[in-house]
Amino acid sequence: MKLLVLGGGGREAAVVWKILQSARVEQVYCAPGNAGIARMATCLDLDLKKPDKLAAVAKDLGVNLTVCGPEQPLVMGVADAFNRLGLRFVGPSRAAACLEGSKVFAKEFMSRHHIPTATFAVCETVDEAKDIFDSNLLDGFPVVVKADGLAAGKGVFIAQDREQAMDVIQSLLVERKLGDAGRRIVLEACLSGVETSFLIFTDGKTMSPLVPARDYKRIGDGDTGPNTGGMGAYSSPDLLDASLQRKILRQIVQPTLTGLQSEGTVFKGVLYVGLMLTEQGPKVLEYNARLGDPEAQVILPRLKTPFVDVLASIADGTLDTLELKWSDESAVCVVLASEGYPETATSGCPITGIEKAELHPGVLLFHAATKRDETGQLVTSGGRVIGVTALGDTLAQARQRAYAAAAEITFPGKQYRTDIASPQPVT
Fold first, then answer.
1. Which CATH number goes with the domain that contains 248?
2. Is 41 strand, coil or helix?
3. Which residues does the UniProt record annotate as the domain ATP-grasp (predicted)?
């Protein structure tokens, strides 16, 4: 089989690595890829914002199956472009990807289908936001301010008081800090509890849950500082008990899929549900229409079923014939980020210590923002540089291995959290 992976981050590095474990795989292409992926696959310099071009290239290359990592191409309709050419593709249609592409759509969808989530309101002007706060609809502060559109994980803000909230709203609606992504905003009550990522594979008829994971979105230890695309994650066998997982499937996942079908949309691919486990039960924080990053880096290493078989069954509508099997190991991923991230990350900094880190037992390095300069030196090329993932018989062992390997890797301005997989404080 020839496969094409769309994307160039740590998630796509994990996808390529997992795909290559199957003897069925003859060739893997990745567009655009990165320096780490280039060691495993043929990287193609293609624009992910041109769905029709991507589909045409895949057809010319004789690609048998394509999987999309990032959200932007999905929201732009890349699945539809591939389907028009009769090409097998793993990822939801443009209509289904609206669950991630628009926070307003997602919240109003949950309201229509009685899916548990935080109380919310939508506004397009500063005056509308003031009226919402005056009405006390959100029951005081803190409140969460969300940009409607895609913002690479950086469009969510927690405001502790009205002044802070209005500053954020001003920056989004008036100053257009996030461009059109912040043309509309969602204001919602701030939920308390523990965050968990719950993902499923679905072929549009059958759903199969993945092992759950927990990610860390804030830049600083103790969940401080601004939101990022994700600074680390872990997955362990005891993260969610079976009873709670059944409740999530029954009260949230199935109503989401059924609700989409009732509105004329079938979801095929990976549905990611970001949850807050509150005292009142699990509630939805957000939907993603693809594998999480860095959740993929701790979930895929635990998958024992050949990943190519899973992807093919999603594309072909035969997921009901496949039983997913998972390792009892734990996995921890620590993201090493560039100086200035998540605002303006520095690039071009030389990276050393990769070879030493790779020698550590149970360690996997998933490159994200890396490239080779004109001299062949490995350098940083963006915010999240490398995800250092480690497997272990226990969560403590996996955590120790990940941090030991992370210490081997150096580049100017390297920053990372030191509390990934530590007991997470209730927020």
1. 3.30.470.20
2. coil
3. 107-316
How many Cα atoms are found within 13 Å in the side-chain-facing hemisphere of 400? 7
Does 427 reside within a domain?
A: no
**Does the model's pTM come out above 0.90?**
yes
426 in any annotated domain: no
Radius of gyration of the chain (CA): 21
Mark whether 8 and 42 lie in a shared domain: yes
Domain, as residue range, for 205: 194-321
User: Contact, 293 vs 11, CB < 8 A?
Assistant: yes
Domain assignment present for residue 236? The answer is yes
Number of domains in the chain: 4
Calculate the CA 125 to chain-centre distance: 29
Is residue 81 located within the same domain as residue 126? no
Query: pLDDT by residue for the chain (427 residues), tens digit each?
Result: 999 999 999 999 999 999 999 999 999 999 999 999 999 999 999 999 999 999 999 999 999 999 999 999 999 999 999 999 999 999 999 999 999 999 999 999 999 999 999 999 999 999 999 999 999 888 899 999 999 998 877 789 999 999 999 999 999 999 999 998 889 999 999 999 999 999 999 999 999 999 999 999 999 999 999 889 999 999 999 999 999 999 999 999 999 999 999 999 999 999 999 999 999 999 999 999 999 999 999 999 999 999 999 999 999 999 999 999 999 999 999 999 999 999 989 999 999 999 999 999 999 999 999 999 999 999 999 999 999 999 999 999 999 999 999 999 999 999 999 999 997 544 4
Assigned domain for 112 exists = no
Whether residues 291 and 277 fall in one domain: yes
Domain boundary among 170, 189, 208: 189
